[in-house]
Amino acid sequence: MSDIQQIGSKIGITSPRVLRKAEEFVQLLEIRSNSGGLSALKLPAGCTTVACIDLAASTCNHYADKAV
């Protein structure tokens, strides 16, 4: 099970469509952050993964349980 799937299941998102979109966002973020913009923030990997999952869920009209 990938990090995205593990974190997604912890926050209540198990939709394969959302998780695939989150993986796409993580890959784009990794490509873009190597240019220096986001790397200056020094965010932990888990933080960016959760943000990508939340963005993917919003994009797919599938919202995470914020209480978790």
UniProtKB/TrEMBL annotation:
Listed GO biological process terms: DNA replication initiation
Alphabetical list of InterPro entries matching this protein: ORC6_met/pln (IPR020529)
One GO term describing the cellular component: nuclear origin of replication recognition complex
Protein name per Swiss-Prot or TrEMBL: Uncharacterized protein
Organism annotation: Dreissena polymorpha (Zebra mussel)
